[in-house]
Amino acid sequence: MTQGSRVVVVGAGPTGLFTALGLARKGAQVTVIDAEPRVNDSPRANVYMLSTIKALDEYGLLEDALRVAARGYEFNMRFPLTGNVARLKFELLEGLTYTYTLHFGQNVLAEILLKHFLELPGAQMRWNTRFVSLAQKADGVEVSVESEGVQDVIEADWMVGADGARSSVRKALDLEFGGFTWPETFMATNVYYDFDKHGYAASNMVAAGADWHVVAKVSDDGLWRIAYGEDANLTEEQRRARIPDRFANFLPDRAEFELERANSYRVHQRCASSMRVGRVLLAGDAAHATNPIGGMGFTSGVQDAKALVDALGRVIAGDCDDDILDYYSSERRRVFLQIANPSAIDQKRRVQETDREVRLKDEAEFMAATTNPEIAKMAMMSVFQLEGKPYQPGRKA
Ligand SMILES: Cc1cc2nc3c(=O)[nH]c(=O)nc-3n(C[C@H](O)[C@H](O)[C@H](O)COP(=O)(O)OP(=O)(O)OC[C@H]3O[C@@H](n4cnc5c(N)ncnc54)[C@H](O)[C@@H]3O)c2cc1C
Question: Is the CB–ligand 1 distance for residue 72 below 6 Å?
Fold first, then answer.
């Protein structure tokens, strides 16, 4: 590693901080900037799949995660049409290192990453600092930022845009973000309610047509996520006012619940036309956006971060030509477009399906998986495909 290689990471979300931590560990001087004053704690990712747990372990973060996380040992697909529940148990993955999902807010993960990052020499976190524009030179990037009304330029050798789905970095690079936006809004609520009592697993999808919803544990103190679709034409106030009525269809015994927070999101299936332009790389939601049913979002983002740390780390160290960065871009786009994107679209279709015959067919498939360990194993292991293929010089994705 060329001592003093300077990297600016835009965005202190989980993808940006994971990337920053990895590069700083390799000796780069990493500055993370974020427009907000602190880690964003809106209710988003709270389920971490096997491949993400492996990534956390490889980065020495699993112990910290296990300290705060609830664990899930099965995934349930619930079919209100017949009352059946397909219970896919992780114990079917006998012999593997990770046989559970982890559950905790992505803001908690970001705090863990930030703590480890700030322990490293050369690591800097600048809150309230908004990316404005960039200028590329042959040997570096000038990153223009604005902090509390004051303009500044940060000189860097490399820059990473991990600034989320509305990425200003992606826009500054003039990249297309092709795909589409779903017509409905997703409501994500955190709620205290005793789903354990009703036999729910830590992760559940409820295939109930227009009343589809996802129920997932956030923590062991009784906090759960309920996510569902709402009319995008309603105001946020109207969506919130409808929560008790909507919950009446979701809560098994219609008992009292305590709403902790609620937020709505527009969701997309989109991918940037490239994840590299010169010395600027994109990662996470800045590069690709997906609906969250099935948890493909950060599950993809963390694999971007790992791949980017490896690729950029090798370029900075002088071990590789920079064509490894083109490989990073093409391989990560391939993984999103061929694996994460179709899988998330399919999961959404299944939970929202209204055709009775198709619902029964979907149900039969899921129920078969619960009694056939090989099918169940394949389904649960499929997230490892998101790791992508390792770089070999000259290989195109
Ligand atoms: C309801 C919901 C549930 C989800 N559940 C899951 C799940 O269970 N599992 C899963 O894997 N994924 C899930 N996701 C997806 C997951 O939340 C995202 O994939 C994840 O947040 C992506 O992280 P990121 O770091 O790439 O971007 P973000 O988390 O969006 O972080 C971007 C950061 O960039 C900063 N920023 C933006 N613009 C600028 C600027 N101009 N200058 C400086 N800083 C800027 C922002 O302040 C923010 O801190 C869910 C998403 C939603 C909406």
Answer: no
